[in-house]
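Progress report, Aim 2. The chain analyzed during this reporting quarter is listed below.
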Amino acid sequence: MKSYFVLTKIGITIFVIIAGILGYLLGHKTSAPVEISKLVYLILGLYFLSGSSFIFNQIQEREIDQMMERTRLRPVACFDLSAKKAWDLGAVFFVLGVCFLFLASTMSCFLGLVSVLTYNVFYTPIWKPKWIFGAVPGAIPGALPVLIGFAAGNNNIFSPEAVYIFTVLFLWQMPHFWTLAIKLKDDYQRAGIPTLPAQRNIENTQYYIGLYLFAYVGVVFAAPFLIKTYLFHVAIVLPIAVKLLVEFIRFHKNFSQRSWLRFFMWVNMSVIFFLIAPAFDKWYLYFLGSS
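Predicted structure tokens for the chain:
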């Protein structure tokens, strides 16, 4: 069971599902009842499709995983599971994921296919191993789950709400990945993966982390001009955004294990609240107006 969870990256899969649900709640019209069946199809579709993508990823990267301390015990890399059996499981998951997302929404299904295409055809074999800034276009499939969820409730994926949550999740990934890459610098060097910390230095990496962090926080500060915001945004999101900037300044001025950990934790925590806020405020305003 543990190998199965590692193979499907269950922690990330859970995050994908949560992001999809929040996207659905933001996209769904408050005047219409929430369709439980559609929500179930969305959850199952995200679970199976993201699981298949992660399985394919571990097949593709099995030789790289063997060289990295963090990933050398992954099932395919350590031969607990053959590539053939992993591929068969991934194919079944892929078909199930596509079918369930199609039942949720044709647009959700289309975006799901785009996500697998960009992650397994472009990011894994091309952008990640060959480009120092591969994490930037690689953040596209990472940000699509919120749009997949949004599309299950609303096909207008170019609406301000959809663009906002996609942008938030997209921009968050660079500070998250590059901060983690600092910790795993030796692992990436050993495997020949050209990340910023492995190819350049900590200071240069911090510069680019700051660049995307300020864009990330800037979008959140601009939210009232883009979408409807209310209590949650003012009381929770804005203070977290300020705290995140404070922790980055500390991390940048005095790099240490403690400042790295504090910043990394705040980066990861922030995205949950930044994604919850638009959906919460939307439905809170609705219930406030109907009471």
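DSSP finds 14 helices and no strands in the chain. The longest helix spans residues 257-290. These observations will guide the mutagenesis work planned for the next reporting period.
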